[in-house]
Amino acid sequence: MNVRRRHISGIAIAAATxxxxxxxxxxxxxxxxxxxxxxxxxxxxYPLQYLAEQIGGDHVHVTSLTKPGQEPHDLEISAQQxxxxxxxxxVLYLKNLQPAVDDAVSQSEVKTxxxxxxxxTLEKHGNEVGGHAATHDTSKNDELxxxxxxxxxxxxxxxxxxxxxGKAFEKADPKNAADYRTRxxxxxxxxxxxxxxxxxGLADTGTKVFITTHAAFGYLAERYGLTEExxxxxxxESEPSAARVKNLExxxxxxxxxxxxxxxxxxxxxxxxxxxxxxxxxxxLDPIEGITDKSRxxxxxxVQQANLKALQKALxxx
Length: 318
Hints:
The protein is α/β, with parallel strands linked by helices and 318 residues long. It contains 10 helices and 11 strands.
């Protein structure tokens, strides 16, 4: 994904490790991320942490490199986190989402490296994603295009990743393979049910177009016959051009869009400004990159349920 991200270089990581510098910025138990009597897994951020916990159960000890409330794209890794990563049994990450993690994983000697991006298919997404023929949208939607990493927001792709993670756990920790297999099957069954809820819940709506602050919901839009029009591209912190804003306002009027969605981990200023200018409402559509006290739910499934309800309301579900 060719977007601007801050990250520390491999040289900086090595130097910091040698000097013992850096502070631990992951979840509270990150100091004990490795060398437990369980299968120690380091996950890059929440959706992968959740998979590891659900599949591993009592057999695994899972820590996340990204703390709750932290925007995962901007993650910088401390020396202690890098050291803990090297001592873990497995690392679960999503290549090209977090450059600092990619650097650390490539230098790490951890035996089991699981790249979630390799367990499903990724597509190129720009500002506009979906089946809508937006003839009134004159923006060049390919300008910010890149491989979209937000695969976990599509329950079908997330289930594919879950199956791959389960198999990797079975191979790396064979004595608990049967339990991993059983728990993976149960999780995939829940994701299949969630997929059905989205498919039926969004089948009959007044409009199929929704506006978001950044292009996180492309896979979800494609899965359920919707069109996501993003104010920004794949980078949640980029600023839209004046022409893009004008086109969004024009599109919103033409397609009966009622709502501009924003998310909890980045500023809602742009979304609210555009909504005010276009006389639209605002609401939250959560990309589930982390769970905080601002989240509309306590885990992946409950937040996805809230997302479904928000979409049904905004799209005019019948």
